[in-house]
Amino acid sequence: MAKKEGTQRPILVTIICILGFIGFPLSLIAAVIGMSAVSLVPNVELMPLWYSIFAIILALLYLPALIYIWKMKKIGLIAYTALAVIDYAVGFASGFASISGLVVSAIFIGLLYTQFKKMN
Questions:
Q1: Residue 74 reports pLDDT greater than 80
Q2: What is the rounded distance in angstroms from the CA atom of residue 63 to the CA atom of residue 91?
Q3: Dihedral sign from CA coordinates of 41, 44, 48, 52
Q4: Measuring CA to CA, how many Å separate 75 from each of 2, 17, 94?
Q5: Radius of gyration of the chain (CA)
Q6: What is the pTM of this model?
Q7: Angle at the Cα of 117 (from 69 to 17), degrees rounded to 5?
Q8: What tens digit of pLDDT does each residue of 93-109 get?
């Protein structure tokens, strides 16, 4: 099938999605390591089991949102934004989120919203 004119994925969306696709398995690995008894860094407190499970579930929900963004679907960006709000609300409430992570996420989401009108 031929693509409709105007639905070509901008390079900005491509770059951010590729970074997200790279980050997806890394976040799963970090969540699994966070709930394991083996700590890679001495004297660092392990994440509670509930938070590790939450992080895994969230990562699994981020993936379809990223795929929809890759396909230039508005629902993907809306879902991704909602998941980020939930992620950081729970993260800050439990002490596992950082301001720098929030800023980077906000910048990426803001950049993606500059392409919102080009999405279906």
A1: yes
A2: 19
A3: negative
A4: 22, 15, 28
A5: 16
A6: 0.82
A7: 20
A8: 988 888 988 999 999 99
Distance, in Å, from the CA atom of 31 to the CA atom of 81, rounded to the nearest integer, reads: 21
Overall size of the chain counted in residues = 120
**Residue whose pair of structure tokens reads 């970074």 in the numeric block:** 19
As a dihedral over the C-alpha atoms of residue 67, residue 61, residue 25, residue 116, rounded to 10 degrees, the angle is 40
Closest alpha carbon to 83 in 111, 112, 55, 58: 58
Residue type, 82: A
Tokens for 26? 């890394």
Taking the C-alpha atoms of residue 35 and residue 105, their distance in angstroms, rounded to an integer, is 24
* Residue labelled with tokens 């770059």: 15
- The span from the CA of 116 to the CA of 110, in Å, is 10
The neighbour count for residue 120, using CB atoms within 10 Å, is: 11
